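Example 497.
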Amino acid sequence: MTKSLIKNVVILGGGTAGWMSAVLIKKVMGSVVNVELVESEAIGTIGVGEATIPPIQLFNSVLGLNEAEFLRETKATIKLAIKFDNWKELNHSYYHTFGAAGKSLAFCHFHHLLQRAQNLGHQSHLWEYDLNYLCCEAEKFAKINTQDPILEMGYAYHFDASLYAAYLRKLSEQMGVKRTEGMVNDVKQHKESGFIESLILKDGQEIQGDLFIDCSGMAGLLTEKKLNTGYEDWSHWLRCDRAVAMPSERFENTLPYTRSIAHTAGWQWRIPLQHRNGNGLVYSSHHYSEDEAVNILTDNLESPSLGDPNFIRFRTGRRRKQWNKNVIAVGLSSGFLEPLESTSIHLIQSAIVRLLHNFPHQGIDESQVAEYNKQSKIEYEQIRDFIILHYHVNERTDSQFWIDVRHMDIPASLKHKIKIFKENGQLFREQEDLFAESSWLQVMMGQGIQPRDYHPLADGVPQDKLFNMLDQIKAIKQEPLAKLPTHDEFLNKLCNT
Ligand code: FAD
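Predicted structure in complex with flavin-adenine dinucleotide:
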């Protein structure tokens, strides 16, 4: 592998991935490298991707963004959870919140205590002990100023993705990122090493670089079209292969959560922004035609649409190597997992952070590339398993799609996780799994898995003490609610002052 100093970083693509990469690399490495971004307005961006998960706060804070300004600029709202309707069975709902239920004892997670209490006749469910859930149901939100970890609320945002990209573009350019408008229609490679040397634009301009970030979207212009990296296809597990998106007018209070509503062969998202709802249907083209998909979506909008349907085809899976030669694939060029748990923007963030940790300023080293690829693979697979869980564990009998995914063979890693939880309620977090135990717990229980046993430590608490403890925890969790503003009041105050 050729080793030459990395001075010029070239980013191909100006979607969410391109601008997130540009702004963070410039912010962190701006004194060491030059950053140039090439994008083509004629091609445009995918134009979806509006729900996020809590680590986005870290991204924004590294950039030094003011939260109120960010909310205003991107028409954002607060996201405390995803509410899943009809996933376990028709007319059943559960939440996957960014919070955690109850309070654990040393070595004994809260749900073991709760399960014992339930076995003894205590009438309560997991989510009643989760402040995020209580706020979702009450449609309330404000940051709680507390030292008590039991009252911490994880949250993320829903935002207008094109406004977010425009906001990051403005910041990037202020910091000195060079933006070049133009369509790339050729790529020069080094004869022996195969490293990319430059991008040739339609107007003849040549953009040279030492390291290329491929943010060209699903086409994967550098990583796939030029370097033939290959793709690992996961569509036998995740069988949806299309989406149709359509914004609509706002019609209800601003919910502090995303809605995910399962249909007979896919699911619909509803994302409340300040100025509109983002909607879409993710579906299997083996089950719905385009017309059927649009009809299902429009029948379930509950308010007038604000645009024409935007159809998107995808193939679930990942690029075999996220880093190949001197090209790092970030965003949709690196793979695709459906937006059920809003993980794509996070994958962009973690890919750039991983690159920054392993930045090859002295030249590209093969072992560093291998490590980067290993970590990326694990991350993709863990998220893949979490998404498959939602499909696989279901009790629906009303459509062949749901019956088939219930009976499909699943990855061994997920099988193992489900088996252990079913046996004794144990959950484990491996190698920095993005989703903590509380996430796995909520989805496993929400989808209908009830462990056969609980941890024996729960037996160590006498019944009256256990019941008292649960009542106390519930009271502590409920206490802040009365004082919290509604989500709408919170947004109005922050965005209009
Ligand atoms: P794109 O937006 O496609 O950008 C590609 C860029 O490359 C464009 O600027 C284009 O001009 C440029 N380009 C391409 N070819 C050339 C060329 N030849 N010359 C010059 N420029 C070129 N993620 C979430 O986190 N949350 C969600 O809720 C969510 N919802 C989604 C819903 C759907 C239906 C889909 C499909 C995705 C969703 N995602 C979501 C994923 C999210 O949209 C993407 O991860 C994100 O938008 C990043 O896209 P990108 O920047 O990689 O690609």
